Protein backbone atom coordinates (compact mmCIF):
# COMPACT_ATOMS: atom_id res chain seq x y z
CA UNK A 1 0.00 0.00 0.00
CA UNK A 2 1.51 3.32 -1.11
CA UNK A 3 0.84 6.32 1.12
CA UNK A 4 0.05 9.60 -0.66
CA UNK A 5 -0.09 13.18 0.63
CA UNK A 6 -1.90 15.91 -1.34
CA UNK A 7 -1.01 19.62 -1.40
CA UNK A 8 -3.34 22.00 -3.25
CA UNK A 9 -5.13 25.14 -2.12
CA UNK A 10 -8.29 24.20 -4.02
CA UNK A 11 -10.35 21.83 -1.90
CA UNK A 12 -12.35 20.64 -4.90
CA UNK A 13 -9.13 19.54 -6.64
CA UNK A 14 -7.83 17.82 -3.50
CA UNK A 15 -11.10 15.99 -2.97
CA UNK A 16 -11.24 14.89 -6.59
CA UNK A 17 -7.68 13.54 -6.58
CA UNK A 18 -8.17 11.96 -3.15
CA UNK A 19 -11.32 10.12 -4.24
CA UNK A 20 -9.57 8.98 -7.39
CA UNK A 21 -6.57 7.57 -5.53
CA UNK A 22 -8.57 6.06 -2.66
CA UNK A 23 -10.48 3.98 -5.20
CA UNK A 24 -7.25 2.14 -6.02
CA UNK A 25 -6.43 -1.01 -4.00
CA UNK A 26 -2.74 -0.10 -3.59
CA UNK A 27 -3.01 3.65 -2.91
CA UNK A 28 -4.21 5.51 0.17
CA UNK A 29 -4.30 9.24 0.94
CA UNK A 30 -2.91 9.82 4.43
CA UNK A 31 -3.07 13.60 4.56
CA UNK A 32 -3.84 16.89 2.83
CA UNK A 33 -2.67 20.49 3.06
CA UNK A 34 -3.54 23.78 1.38
CA UNK A 35 -0.37 25.77 2.11
CA UNK A 36 3.40 25.37 2.21
CA UNK A 37 3.43 25.83 5.97
CA UNK A 38 0.79 23.17 6.60
CA UNK A 39 2.42 20.76 4.18
CA UNK A 40 5.91 21.14 5.64
CA UNK A 41 4.74 20.16 9.13
CA UNK A 42 2.35 17.39 8.10
CA UNK A 43 4.69 15.75 5.59
CA UNK A 44 7.40 15.63 8.26
CA UNK A 45 4.93 14.02 10.65
CA UNK A 46 3.52 11.42 8.25
CA UNK A 47 6.45 10.71 5.86
CA UNK A 48 4.34 9.54 2.89
CA UNK A 49 5.72 7.68 -0.11
CA UNK A 50 4.61 10.40 -2.52
CA UNK A 51 3.60 14.04 -2.17
CA UNK A 52 1.39 15.28 -5.03
CA UNK A 53 1.58 19.07 -5.05
CA UNK A 54 0.54 22.11 -7.03
CA UNK A 55 3.02 24.74 -8.20
CA UNK A 56 1.05 27.76 -6.95
CA UNK A 57 0.24 27.86 -3.24
CA UNK A 58 -1.05 30.83 -1.19
CA UNK A 59 2.09 31.24 0.90
CA UNK A 60 4.83 30.13 -1.46
CA UNK A 61 5.99 27.96 -4.31
CA UNK A 62 5.21 24.27 -4.68
CA UNK A 63 8.56 23.89 -6.44
CA UNK A 64 10.41 25.29 -3.44
CA UNK A 65 8.32 23.07 -1.15
CA UNK A 66 9.30 20.10 -3.29
CA UNK A 67 12.98 20.96 -2.89
CA UNK A 68 12.58 21.35 0.88
CA UNK A 69 10.84 17.98 1.19
CA UNK A 70 13.46 16.21 -0.93
CA UNK A 71 16.32 17.70 1.09
CA UNK A 72 14.79 16.89 4.47
CA UNK A 73 13.24 13.53 3.52
CA UNK A 74 15.04 11.97 0.52
CA UNK A 75 12.83 8.87 0.55
CA UNK A 76 9.70 10.96 -0.04
CA UNK A 77 9.05 11.40 -3.75
CA UNK A 78 7.33 14.50 -5.15
CA UNK A 79 4.99 14.69 -8.13
CA UNK A 80 4.06 18.12 -9.47
CA UNK A 81 0.45 18.42 -10.64
CA UNK A 82 -0.08 21.81 -12.30
CA UNK A 83 -2.34 23.68 -14.66
CA UNK A 84 0.70 24.94 -16.58
CA UNK A 85 2.48 22.99 -19.30
CA UNK A 86 5.56 24.79 -20.61
CA UNK A 87 9.33 24.41 -20.60
CA UNK A 88 9.82 26.92 -17.79
CA UNK A 89 7.50 24.99 -15.49
CA UNK A 90 9.19 21.68 -16.29
CA UNK A 91 12.59 23.36 -15.88
CA UNK A 92 11.51 24.45 -12.41
CA UNK A 93 10.35 20.91 -11.59
CA UNK A 94 13.75 19.53 -12.60
CA UNK A 95 15.47 22.07 -10.33
CA UNK A 96 13.14 21.18 -7.49
CA UNK A 97 14.16 17.51 -7.73
CA UNK A 98 10.63 16.39 -8.54
CA UNK A 99 10.16 12.83 -9.74
CA UNK A 100 7.53 13.88 -12.24
CA UNK A 101 5.47 16.72 -13.69
CA UNK A 102 1.84 16.38 -14.75
CA UNK A 103 -0.86 18.74 -15.99
CA UNK A 104 -4.31 18.69 -14.43
CA UNK A 105 -5.96 18.14 -17.80
CA UNK A 106 -4.70 14.55 -17.96
CA UNK A 107 -7.16 11.69 -17.85
CA UNK A 108 -7.83 10.23 -14.43
CA UNK A 109 -6.22 6.94 -15.38
CA UNK A 110 -3.01 8.72 -16.37
CA UNK A 111 -2.84 10.50 -13.02
CA UNK A 112 -3.27 7.23 -11.14
CA UNK A 113 -0.60 5.54 -13.25
CA UNK A 114 1.79 8.44 -12.68
CA UNK A 115 1.32 8.42 -8.90
CA UNK A 116 1.87 4.67 -8.82
CA UNK A 117 4.98 4.93 -11.01
CA UNK A 118 6.55 7.60 -8.80
CA UNK A 119 5.68 5.59 -5.68
CA UNK A 120 7.54 2.65 -7.22
CA UNK A 121 10.64 4.78 -7.66
CA UNK A 122 10.36 5.72 -11.32
CA UNK A 123 10.93 9.21 -12.71
CA UNK A 124 8.48 10.73 -15.18
CA UNK A 125 10.58 13.70 -16.27
CA UNK A 126 11.91 13.28 -19.77
CA UNK A 127 15.65 12.51 -19.71
CA UNK A 128 16.10 14.92 -22.61
CA UNK A 129 14.73 17.78 -20.51
CA UNK A 130 16.98 16.91 -17.56
CA UNK A 131 20.01 16.80 -19.88
CA UNK A 132 18.97 20.09 -21.48
CA UNK A 133 18.76 21.82 -18.09
CA UNK A 134 22.12 20.46 -16.96
CA UNK A 135 23.86 21.28 -20.24
CA UNK A 136 22.47 24.80 -20.45
CA UNK A 137 23.76 25.53 -16.95
CA UNK A 138 27.18 24.05 -17.69
CA UNK A 139 27.47 26.01 -20.94
CA UNK A 140 26.60 29.25 -19.18
CA UNK A 141 29.28 28.70 -16.55
CA UNK A 142 31.93 27.99 -19.20
CA UNK A 143 31.09 31.08 -21.26
CA UNK A 144 31.30 33.58 -18.40
CA UNK A 145 32.71 32.70 -14.95
CA UNK A 146 30.40 35.24 -13.32
CA UNK A 147 27.46 32.98 -14.07
CA UNK A 148 29.03 30.20 -12.06
CA UNK A 149 28.08 32.08 -8.89
CA UNK A 150 24.39 32.09 -9.80
CA UNK A 151 22.05 29.42 -8.47
CA UNK A 152 19.91 27.44 -10.89
CA UNK A 153 16.87 29.49 -9.89
CA UNK A 154 18.73 32.76 -10.46
CA UNK A 155 19.80 31.62 -13.92
CA UNK A 156 16.23 30.72 -14.76
CA UNK A 157 14.96 34.10 -13.58
CA UNK A 158 17.70 35.88 -15.52
CA UNK A 159 16.52 34.17 -18.70
CA UNK A 160 12.95 35.34 -18.05
CA UNK A 161 14.15 38.90 -17.36
CA UNK A 162 15.77 38.83 -20.81
CA UNK A 163 12.37 37.86 -22.24
CA UNK A 164 10.97 41.10 -20.83
CA UNK A 165 8.89 39.60 -18.03
CA UNK A 166 8.16 41.64 -14.92
CA UNK A 167 8.71 40.27 -11.42
CA UNK A 168 5.01 39.52 -11.13
CA UNK A 169 4.95 37.71 -14.48
CA UNK A 170 8.03 35.70 -13.51
CA UNK A 171 6.36 34.78 -10.24
CA UNK A 172 3.23 33.63 -12.08
CA UNK A 173 5.32 31.57 -14.48
CA UNK A 174 7.39 29.86 -11.77
CA UNK A 175 4.93 29.70 -8.92
CA UNK A 176 6.83 32.19 -6.76
CA UNK A 177 5.67 35.18 -4.75
CA UNK A 178 6.54 38.53 -6.36
CA UNK A 179 8.61 39.46 -3.29
CA UNK A 180 10.59 36.22 -3.63
CA UNK A 181 11.35 37.00 -7.27
CA UNK A 182 12.47 40.49 -6.29
CA UNK A 183 14.92 39.01 -3.80
CA UNK A 184 16.31 36.64 -6.44
CA UNK A 185 16.73 39.55 -8.87
CA UNK A 186 18.61 41.60 -6.29
CA UNK A 187 20.88 38.66 -5.55
CA UNK A 188 21.71 37.86 -9.18
CA UNK A 189 22.39 41.53 -9.97
CA UNK A 190 24.83 41.67 -7.07
CA UNK A 191 26.62 38.50 -8.18
CA UNK A 192 26.91 39.78 -11.75
CA UNK A 193 28.17 43.19 -10.62
CA UNK A 194 25.22 45.00 -12.18
CA UNK A 195 22.89 47.70 -10.88
CA UNK A 196 19.77 47.44 -13.04
CA UNK A 197 17.71 44.59 -14.45
CA UNK A 198 17.94 46.16 -17.92
CA UNK A 199 21.71 45.57 -17.80
CA UNK A 200 21.07 41.95 -16.84
CA UNK A 201 18.61 41.58 -19.70
CA UNK A 202 21.15 42.89 -22.20
CA UNK A 203 23.88 40.64 -20.82
CA UNK A 204 21.66 37.57 -21.02
CA UNK A 205 20.50 38.46 -24.53
CA UNK A 206 24.13 38.78 -25.67
CA UNK A 207 24.94 35.39 -24.19
CA UNK A 208 21.90 33.79 -25.81
CA UNK A 209 22.89 35.13 -29.24
CA UNK A 210 26.54 34.17 -28.89
CA UNK A 211 27.47 31.14 -31.02
CA UNK A 212 28.36 28.12 -28.91
CA UNK A 213 30.91 25.44 -29.70
CA UNK A 214 29.42 22.06 -30.47
CA UNK A 215 30.44 19.76 -27.62
CA UNK A 216 30.81 16.63 -29.68
CA UNK A 217 32.98 18.35 -32.26
CA UNK A 218 35.10 19.83 -29.50
CA UNK A 219 35.61 16.45 -27.90
CA UNK A 220 36.51 14.83 -31.23
CA UNK A 221 39.20 17.47 -31.83
CA UNK A 222 40.99 16.69 -28.57
Detailed description of the structure:
57% of the residues lie in helices and 14% in strands. It has 222 residues and is of the alpha/beta class. The strands form two sheets. Strands 2-1-3-6-7 form a five-stranded parallel sheet, with helices on both faces. It has a two-stranded antiparallel ribbon with strand order 4-5. Strand 6, helix 4 (87-95) and strand 7 form a beta-alpha-beta unit. Helix 7 (152-162) packs across helix 10. The longest helix has 17 residues, at 127-143. The protein starts with a strand and ends with a helix. Mean pLDDT is 82; it is low at 211-222.
Describe the structure concisely for a colleague:
The protein is built from eleven helices and seven strands. The protein is an alpha/beta fold and 222 residues long. The strands form two sheets. A five-stranded parallel sheet has the order 2-1-3-6-7, sandwiched between helices.
Count of individual beta strands: 7
Strand content: 5-15%
What order do the strands of the largest sheet run in, or round the barrel if closed? Answer: 2-1-3-6-7
The percent of residues in helical segments reads 55-70%
Number of helices: 11
Specify Rg, calculated over alpha carbons: 19 Å
Tell me the span between the first and last alpha carbons: 53 Å
Provide the residue-averaged pLDDT: 82
Amino acid sequence: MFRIFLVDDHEVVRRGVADLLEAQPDLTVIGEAATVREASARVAATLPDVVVLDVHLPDGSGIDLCRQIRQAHPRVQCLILSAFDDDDAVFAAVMGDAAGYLVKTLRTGEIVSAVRAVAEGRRLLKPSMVRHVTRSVDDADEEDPRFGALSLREKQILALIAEGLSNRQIGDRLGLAEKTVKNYVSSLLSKLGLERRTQAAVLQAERANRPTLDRSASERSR
